Amino acid sequence: MLFILYLCMWSVPGSHGQSLTTTTTSQTFVTSGEDNGQCTTCQFRQQSKLMRLHSIKSQILSILRLEQAPNISRDTVKLLLPKAPPLQELLDQYVQNGGVSEDEEQDSSETIITMATESQAITQGEGMPKCCMFSLSPKILPDSILKAQLWIYLRPAEEPTTVFIQISRMKVPSEGNSRSRIPSQKIDVNAQTNSWQHIDMKQLLQSWLKQPEMNFGIEIKAFDANGNDLAVTSAESGEEGLQPFLEVKISDTAKRSRRDTGLDCDEHSTESRCCRYPLTVDFEDFGWDWIIAPKRYKANYCSGECVQKYPHSHIVNKANPRGSVGPCCTPTKMSPINMLYFNDREQIIYGKIPSMVVDLCGCS
């Protein structure tokens, strides 16, 4: 049996126009018997699968500009993950699919969720609030904001009442009045009813982005008729996951190309030609609890033989010694998946991760 092994380089688009290069392996087999050929093909298919899993891990970290996976445990995720309507809707979608992300048509937007933190020291003085600051992702640009909402959780009132939600923008104390009011919102609530409320923050967020040096955070109050503040602004015992957060929806101009058809095989196939095989990636197997959803997704991989079309093609290879020995079985079309995850600053991001699903395999 003649066994020829060679390396093939293929690139997938990364973030901000970067190109991520992944090394895949292809091989050509000439066997003296059908059984030996099938056995060797199965071994190579397993190798291709393992290399695909490794490349996915590297690709995700590179696209997200992470040197290593965020060190966020499952218990920490439970504490940090807001128990809020927009997130519950997203998680419910994944639950309905059994935790697996399907390759569906996606809209041209991305959602970034930022948890509230304590205000900067410059605003800390007598009677100054500790909440809330929001660390804004560099992906958010003033003109890209489609929607920006501040989500606030209200404790239950003792009786039916009207609640006035007041948001104050913090300023440098030396400017005199350290707060400037943003128009308040009035809502009616029932007795003993917990609720999430959202306030439009698009105008203030755009102002912060244009003048980031003026972002000293905001003060959040929600007074009932008796003057009680019902707003949850810190994680007291029993109130974990109820802190305020910003939900920002930004435009994404990335375009999806039309899916073509190609040769598809299953794990029991005896096909030796270049083919696309099914592969489900399980992030829990990686130990990546920082990826909230999907826990699994259908990635697929390429494997198989690429027979050279022309008998004298070796002459071309000699003329180009820096090239590969022959064509490689590689992805020729890929598509993104939607992912909900924590970044290394413990911000929650919901958006598209490009080139995560192999749609088509071919020889190149």
UniProtKB/TrEMBL annotation:
Compartmental location: Secreted
GO molecular function: cytokine activity; growth factor activity
Occurrences of domain TGF-beta family profile (ranges): 256-364
The entry's keywords: Cleavage on pair of basic residues, Cytokine, Disulfide bond, Glycoprotein, Growth factor, Secreted, Signal
Pfam families on file: TGF_beta, TGFb_propeptide
SUPFAM superfamilies: Cystine-knot cytokines (SSF57501)
Signal peptide limits: 1-17
InterPro entries in the record: Cystine-knot_cytokine, TGF-b_C, TGF-b_propeptide, TGF-beta-rel, TGFb_CS
Entry keyword annotation includes Hydrolase: no
Any one Gene Ontology cellular component term annotated for this protein: extracellular space
PANTHER family reported for this sequence: GROWTH_DIFFERENTIATION FACTOR 8, TGF-BETA FAMILY
Subunit structure: Homodimer; disulfide-linked.
Family under the similarity heading: Belongs to the TGF-beta family.
Function of the molecule: Acts specifically as a negative regulator of skeletal muscle growth.
Full protein name: Growth/differentiation factor 8
Organism: Paramisgurnus dabryanus
Gene: mstnb
